[in-house]
């Protein structure tokens, strides 16, 4: 079993003695105990330290392991050679990814200038929402099907300032293209669409973001120009959003499965 996230260990495994529903959706089950259940029961019965997350007082160690290969393919499998090939492929892929990142980051100032010009053009064509000062320009139409009120939808988004500077995105490629890539965020698997409730009552820091996506159908792609008072206002948002700053969001409600 492999831990969550890239480049984590792939040789750790759990032998579970009881139901552990909190692991559901995080790990894959790839086997079961077919012999030696009494040994598992005895391990579960050893004295533990309740103050140390119920770890055994005396370590329980696996002394030996024997892998039984079944079938011609398993018996022919050369673990050392496969491991070597995998490591070489991973090293090459990492080098290519690093070179691509370096290239994108070098081009980021140029891309930012182009984005600023594009945002200016879109804003001139945008339409003011009813009962709101948010301006919206529709980039492309989706399915024409509106999400049910109260349902959960998934949104791909990128947040810009009017000068074309990116402050946040759900897309790792866009983060790299506009010079705002965060390796730690990438390793955590946090570059992904966000789930939101399609509901006017949904609490949200930048309320203008909500006003915009509530006008969308599945598959719609829009850009929303959110004035400061419907964004983060005078307080801003940490070191990311300065006070009194207009926010621009490119967003898409992902199509239904």
Automatic annotation (TrEMBL):
Stored InterPro entries: Cyclophilin-like_dom_sf (IPR029000), Cyclophilin-type_PPIase_dom (IPR002130), Cyclophilin_A-like (IPR044666), PPIase_dom_sf (IPR046357), PPIase_FKBP_dom (IPR001179)
GO terms assigned for molecular function: peptidyl-prolyl cis-trans isomerase activity
Span of domain PPIase FKBP-type: 150-257
PPIase cyclophilin-type domain segment(s): 1-67
Alphabetical UniProt keywords: Isomerase, Rotamase
UniProt key word NAD: no
E.C. numbers: 5.2.1.8
Record-linked Pfam families: FKBP_C, Pro_isomerase
Catalyzed reaction equations: [protein]-peptidylproline (omega=180) = [protein]-peptidylproline (omega=0)
Keyword Transmembrane: no
Family annotation (SUPFAM superfamilies): Cyclophilin-like (SSF50891), FKBP-like (SSF54534)
PROSITE patterns for this protein: CSA_PPIASE_2, FKBP_PPIASE
Family: Belongs to the FKBP-type PPIase family.
Protein known as: Peptidyl-prolyl cis-trans isomerase
């Amino acid at each position: 079993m492999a831990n969550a996230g890239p480049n984590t260990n792939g040789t750790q495994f759990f032998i579970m003695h009881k139901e552990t529903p909190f692991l559901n959706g995080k790990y894959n089950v790839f086997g079961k105990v077919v012999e030696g259940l009494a040994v598992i029961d005895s391990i579960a019965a050893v004295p533990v330290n309740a103050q140390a997350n119920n770890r055994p007082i005396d370590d329980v160690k696996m002394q030996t392991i024997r892998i039984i290969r079944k079938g011609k393919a398993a018996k022919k499998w050369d673990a050392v050679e496969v491991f070597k090939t995998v490591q070489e492929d991973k090293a090459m892929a990492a080098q290519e990814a690093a070179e691509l990142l370096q290239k994108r980051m070098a081009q980021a100032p140029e891309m930012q200038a182009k984005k600023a010009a594009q945002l200016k053009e879109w804003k001139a064509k945008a339409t003011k929402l009813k009962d709101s000062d948010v301006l919206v320009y529709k980039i492309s139409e989706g399915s024409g099907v509106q999400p049910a009120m109260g349902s959960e939808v998934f949104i791909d988004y990128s947040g810009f300032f009017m000068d074309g500077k990116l402050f946040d995105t759900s897309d790792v490629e866009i983060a790299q293209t506009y010079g705002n890539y965060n390796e730690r965020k990438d390793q955590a698997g946090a570059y992904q669409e966000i789930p939101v409730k399609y509901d006017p009552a949904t609490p949200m820091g930048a309320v203008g973001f909500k006003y915009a996506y509530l006008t969308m159908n599945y598959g719609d792609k829009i850009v929303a120009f959110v004035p400061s008072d419907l964004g983060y206002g005078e307080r801003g948002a940490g070191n990311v959003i300065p006070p009194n700053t207009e926010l621009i969001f490119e967003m898409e409600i992902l199509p239904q499965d």
